[in-house]
Amino acid sequence: MASFPQRVFSGVQPTGNLHLGNYLGAITRWVELQARYDCVFCVVDLHAITVPQDPQDLTRSIREVTAAFLASGIDAKRHIVFNQSQVAEHAELAWVLNCTARIGWMNRMTQFKEKAGKDREQASVGLYSYPVLMAADVLAYRATHVPVGEDQKQHLELARDVAQKFNQDFTASIAARGLGVEQPTGEGGTALAYFPLPEPLIHGPATRVMSLRDGTKKMSKSDPSDNSRINLTDDADAIASKIRKARTDPDPLPSEVAGLAGRPEADNLVGIFAALNGQTREEVLADYGNAQFSTFKGALADRAVATLAPIAAEMKRLVADPQAIDAVLADGAARARVIARETMDGVKDIVGMVRTPGR
Ligand code: AQP
Questions:
Q1: What are the distances in angstroms from CA 61 to CA 67, 75, 258?
Q2: Which of 99, 135, 210, 287 has its CA 20 to 30 A from that of 4?
Q3: How many CB atoms lie within 10 A of CB 179?
Q4: Quick one: average pLDDT of 89-111?
Q5: Closest CA to 309 of 238, 206, 242
Q6: How does residue 1 score in pLDDT terms, banded at 50, 70 and 90?
Q7: Beta 38-43 vs 80-83: how paired, if at all?
Q8: Quick check: is 153 catalytic?
Q9: Tens digits of per-residue pLDDT, 284-301?
Q10: What structural domains and CATH numbers belong to the chain?
């Protein structure tokens, strides 16, 4: 049975300073996956404008996020790095998939409820349909695997639902045009699919890095408190100071993982240490069980600075040459467009639109 070629797609919004959550939950995973998959990594600027953005800040952020990818070890020559708005097929496919997704599905998206806040009537339509654009991002490349943090799990499930409904709605047309790939249905049979059902890749000790000020809230670019997050551009003093000020409870660290239950701040710091040091929580507690937070925070700050300082230095070097970054993005966009256009041509044929042949 034929199968879809294995391909990874993932993205980060250029909505401000990248933080340790983006780095541990997404970018470090991407770096590892490069050896095993063809990868497409995107700076998702169309997603960023679902909430208001200052134009100059947006331009700066697009380049800074690109610099963070490159400084963290993403290989833009072997893989594809670009910004979403340069490949019009994302928006084009999102429209078709808006007509596939159901209002009831969208109404269940918890991130919209969190981001729209109390005044939902004033949220943009783009913020509401954000998950469909994300489905289009992934499906434009017929990506099979999507590494994300825990917070994106629900959106990935929606992308799978959208792909499945499109495949089902248009099975006859997909078959008539010979554009399908036979896929197992899970009930022992097979069905023709134009889109694969993308698999989320959510693993490791830091799939949900929490705020340093409140262990029940995720670390986020849009948190008004800069002390809540470690930015990839923070210097050694800022990193050490934020970790020193991180909220904790008065007890020493437990010696077993079970002892972290009900202690979200302790659990968060141990998880961050584990991810930075390539360890499990168990291994960290084997070394630091019964330690006071003052001792553990010192070790964590040293570890964080050792990992992040070289990345910050490289980002600084890269953003000093915006033309070079723009050239990386233009090259990536040209290669991304070839794949996305082929997908979109197939979608148009399947749906029954008339298109310019050989465009
Ligand atoms: N706290 C986190 N822990 C682990 N992973 C995280 N990610 C984000 N925050 C954490 C992962 O980073 C990738 C890119 O996220 P994004 O920038 O596209 O959007 P987001 O999830 O909305 O991140 P922020 O920081 O919270 O941004 P704002 O404040 O602008 O909304 C994704 O894979 C995400 O899972």
A1: 9, 20, 40
A2: 99
A3: 17
A4: 97
A5: 238
A6: low
A7: parallel
A8: no
A9: 999 999 999 999 999 999
A10: 7-205+321-351 (3.40.50.620), 226-318 (1.10.240.10)
